[in-house]
Design a protein that fits this description.
glycosyltransferase; Spore Coat Polysaccharide Biosynthesis Protein SpsA, Chain A; 9-stranded mixed sheet; transferase activity; 3-stranded antiparallel sheet; 404 residues; transmembrane; 30% helix; Collagen_mod_GT25; Glyco_trans_25; alpha/beta; globular; binds 2-acetamido-2-deoxy-beta-D-glucopyranose
Length: 404
């Protein structure tokens, strides 16, 4: 009798567990949606939602544009003011300093390291001031730029293509709550996808802007609702490592982007320069941040600004700002992983005015001698280099990097 009761109870328990497990698996399958297969996506037309159109507004689809630099560099503020006016952009200046005004006490130092060089401190403070302002004013997003940068006359067109790519990589597929065009996206950092083998690299690369996955329209930002940082201006980015435990691996490649200079004009501080090795001329590649240098321009969402204020402003200040940003993106050196996207070639780059090379940076030496010809690195129809054409309403633009 006792034996019979025991086995009945066991049977009932087993049935309950089996039913429960099946329900969980069924629910997970529904939530995860279909597996990635680029041929599955029909020709997707350009997005038509209102937010997408906002990318053409005076703040490029962000809530504000903040420009970081030292107030004493009036030359740079003059240049930025004119560029912004010629581009129909509203900007606000945020002060950085030479670092001498910031006492040791104000520098988070968790391991007793030596005080970093003054210009590194001043630049870090300028960026953190901008990020703090985004948090304090509760801005939904802001583009933060350094004051010696420049961009293409066609920046709005470029940003719309960037937004289509960032949506493809980070917005849920239409009709699914937690399924993404990039199967390596959406899992909590560090958690390996155990349900399916990781697709090989060719399957993780969307090679054609006409076949982007159809995703849910974002509600907060034209660039998608699930990003922390968009690193749009830099002097080098590595492609995501396939064995990295944090960084999602998906990429979107826009072929034949005439606004991208040919590879022979491009350079990278980070070696190897994988982009020029792997992609043809005029390809524009959007991917997650693995390792980047030079914080020339980046956007933060409100969520991203709060995280960066914490990770970069409040944790151990033991490296230059761009290195801290890289660590907070890829989740290294005591910083947590965050969702950061970038683009190669970059959309915003250094402008180098004519004059003594020593004037080009307040952080590191740029050598002796004169820079004879002003130029903006890697940008074809630079706004600064076309200022004279734009001011008289011309359209015969100077192409700094013509095709050969
Ligand atoms: C879909 O794209 C292919 C190649 O990209 C093109 O040949 C075809 O005409 C497109 N179809 C539609 C309906 O746009
Ligand atoms: C531009 O669009 C963004 C996103 O909708 C919005 O937050 C911002 O306020 C707009 N900027 C202007 C100047 O209207
Ligand atoms: C910040 O803005 C969000 C909506 O964008 C709102 O829900 C929240 O209450 C605001 N927070 C503060 C402190 O104003």
């Amino acid at each position: 009798m006792m034996l019979f009761q025991r086995s009945t109870a066991q049977l009932v328990a087993t049935v309950v567990i089996v039913v429960f497990m099946s329900l969980i698996l069924l629910y997970q399958a529904r939530e995860r949606g279909p597996m990635w297969n680029s041929s599955r996506f029909p020709n997707a037309s350009r997005p038509k939602d209102r937010l997408f159109v906002d990318i053409t507004n005076n703040t490029l689809g962000f809530e504000k544009i903040l420009v970081v630099g030292m107030p004493s560099r009036t030359d740079r503020r003059d240049g930025m003011t004119l560029q912004a006016a010629l581009s129909n952009m509203e900007i606000e200046f945020i002060d950085s300093s030479d670092g001498t005004d910031i006492p040791d006490k104000a520098l988070p130092n968790m391991d007793g390291h030596e005080r970093l060089p003054g210009p590194v401190i001043g630049s870090w403070r300028g960026h953190v001031n901008a990020i703090r302002e985004v948090v304090r004013r509760n801005l939904t997003s802001a583009l933060i730029m350094e004051d010696d940068t420049d961009w293409d006359i066609r920046v709005r067109q470029q940003l719309q293509n960037f937004a289509r790519s960032s949506r493809a990589l980070t917005q849920p597929l239409q009709g699914y709550a937690r399924s993404y065009g990039d199967p390596t996206y959406g899992l909590p950092p560090g958690q390996k996808d155990t349900h399916s083998p990781l697709p090989s690299l060719p399957e993780l690369v969307i090679k054609d802007m006409d076949h982007l996955p159809i995703t849910t329209d974002p509600k907060i930002s034209p660039y998608g609702d699930d990003w922390d940082v968009l690193w749009l201006g830099h002097c080098g980015q590595l492609l995501p490592k396939l064995d990295d435990k944090n960084v999602p691996k998906g990429r979107v490649v826009q072929q034949n982007d005439e606004t991208a200079a040919q590879r022979r004009y491009l350079h990278s501080v980070l070696k190897p320069f994988q982009y020029v090795e792997e992609y043809p001329d005029h390809a524009r590649v959007v991917h997650h941040v693995q390792d980047g240098v030079c914080s020339l321009a980046y956007a933060v969402s409100q969520r991203g600004a709060r995280s960066m204020l914490y990770e970069i402003g409040m944790k151990n200040f033991n490296a230059a700002f761009d290195l801290l940003l890289h660590w907070a993106c890829s989740g290294e050196n005591g910083r947590d992983y965050h969702r950061c996207l970038t683009v190669q070639p970059p959309l915003i780059q250094h402008h180098r005015p004519a004059g003594p090379k020593s004037a080009q940076s307040d952080i590191s030496g740029h050598g002796e001698g004169m820079n004879e010809k002003p130029h903006t690195e890697e940008i074809r129809w630079s706004v600064r280099m076309n200022a004279e054409v734009l001011m008289v309403g011309g359209t015969d633009y100077v192409d700094q990097y013509p095709d050969e």
